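User: I'm writing a tutorial on reading structure tokens. Could you give me a worked example: one chain, its sequence, then its tokens, then a sentence or two explaining what the tokens reveal?
Assistant: Sure. Here is the example chain.
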Amino acid sequence: MNRLLMIFFEDSTVAHLTKEMCSYPYYLGKNHGWICTYAYFGREQLVNPYFEQYCALEHLGDDADYADKKKAAAAYLTVHAGEYDILMFSNYGGASYALARLAKRLNPAIRVYSKLDMNEDGFSHFYDGTFLRKLKVIPEYWKSAAIDLFTVENRSFYNVLKMMRLFRGRLEYLPNPVSLFGVDLAQIKAPQKRENMILTVGRPGVPVKNTELFVEAVQKADRNLFADWKFYIVGEPTLAFRTYVEKLCAEDPWLDAHIILYGRVSDRRELYELYARAKIMCMTSRSEGFPISAVEAIFFGTYLVLTNFGSAIHDLTNGERYGTIVPQEDAAALCRAWKTAAQREDLPVLSREIQAFAREHFNYDRWAAKLHEYLTKLRQHTKK
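And here are its predicted structure tokens:
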């Protein structure tokens, strides 16, 4: 019997049950018979009988201090390391490296897997093409020696990192798919004809999301072409952002009629139905790793217009076949991309193609099977 322990250091909420740090253990249990535990921190204790059929939930406490979390995780491992075959972490660094060494002292047969969840800054920590970076990364060889397997979410990073001596023989590709936990795909209402809707999803007002650029592009939009379009901003806005948009709308009746501050959506069925209704999904982020909102959008056939926020854009758009990439901080370019997409006569056909692509390439059944394969190889190597 295969047993996996996932330790996650960021505070977890019920929303995490559908994110990759929970979803991979859940699908390993559901599809491949693994006995999995998700050990987490947070102010709330998570209870979900349906999730816990396939992955146990272990609350490690509500410590806010990172050092205290590390101590609590070490205490848990000291008691339980011998019960597991695989120890899994999300991200990389001091805590995961130290706990990996501890786990192997306690249980020499355990194997350790780190899902990198890497953005551009994380990638440049390991590689930027310079000789100085090659020198700076040398300590990572001994720091990470207890990690048996890394996975990375986008192919651009994978193709570079796999050639590095640091990762050679212990790096695989593993994207962040769309979780259907608690969702019946057949029950998602998808209209025969998509609405004239451009959607953005995130945390409006948070600097990294740069949703102000979305609003600036709406201001520049061709008001004749987009006369019957709506621009949906989904997510709980900061007070400053809400005030900013409401002021603009009060001064401009056209904006008031076309911008929809939709607010927070906690029901994933409702969110997925928004994707299924919209023609275009827009992300204006300054930086992203592998953004799940974009993956969810294409999973429901929405055409992407993205700022150049990171290497994941190539995977998400399939080399720009299923989306358009625009420069950062360029509202005019963003607006032009909307216009071009809105005028595409083949957009309905393309939407169906996008959906088929995403459901083949970003589904948990496929990638949990691949992770099962990776981890099984690790265990077989251990037995030898």
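What the tokens reveal: The longest strand covers residues 3-11. The mean pLDDT is 95.
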